[in-house]
Amino acid sequence: MTTKEMVFAALFAALIGVLGMIPPIPLGFIPVPITAQTLGVMLAGCFLGKKTGAISLILFIVLVALGLPLLSGGRGGLSVLVGPSAGYILSWPIAAFFIGFAIEKVWSSLKVWKVIVINFIFGVVLVSLIGAPIMALITHTSIWAGLVGATAFLPGDLIKAIIVAVIAIQLKAVSPIEQKLNN
C-alpha cells in the first residue's frame, strides 16, 4: 500500500466520521436509525476502489471500536459493535470492497446508471442482507421481520446511491482508480 493510498483511506475514514455528525433519523419500529454514513461507504468504494475503499472502512471501524464517537448520534466504543447496528456497520468494508471491485471492472465505460446499479446492489441490498439478519438475531426477532423492517431504508439509500453516482462520475479523472489503471 502506497503512502497516497494510506492518506486516501484515512481521509475517507474521516469523511465518514464527518457524515456521522449529521443527526440520525430514528424510525421507531426498527432499532437502527437512518444515517448519512452509508453515502460515505458507497463513495469510498466508487472513488478509492476495492482495496483502499475496504481499508478505509476497516480503519473507521477500528476507530469506532477504540471509542471515538464517529457514528451517527455521537456513538462509539465496542458496545455499538455488538448492538443492533453491528451487522450494518460490519458490512461496510465488505460493501466498499464489492462496490470498488465492480466499479474497477466497468471503469473504462463508467456511466451514472452503472454506478447507481452497483451502489444499489452492493451498497444498499448487500448491506441490508448482512445487517438486517444480524440486527434480528441481536434483538431476538425473526430474520424475516428484520429484512422487512430494513425495507424502510430503501428509498433514502436509493437517493444516496444516485448522489454518489453523480459525484463519482464528476471525480473520475482524479480518482486513484484512474491513476492506477493508467500506470
From TrEMBL:
Keyword entries, A-Z: Cell membrane, Membrane, Transmembrane, Transmembrane helix, Transport
Mode of membrane association: Multi-pass membrane protein
Membrane-spanning segments: 30-48, 55-73, 85-103, 115-138, 144-171
Subcellular localization, as worded in the UniProt entry: Cell membrane
Gene3D superfamilies: 1.10.1760.20
CC per GO annotation: plasma membrane
Main location: membrane
Family (UniProt): Belongs to the BioY family.
Record PANTHER family: BIOTIN TRANSPORTER BIOY, BIOTIN TRANSPORTER BIOY-RELATED
Name the record gives this protein: Biotin transporter
Species per Swiss-Prot/TrEMBL record: Psychrobacillus glaciei
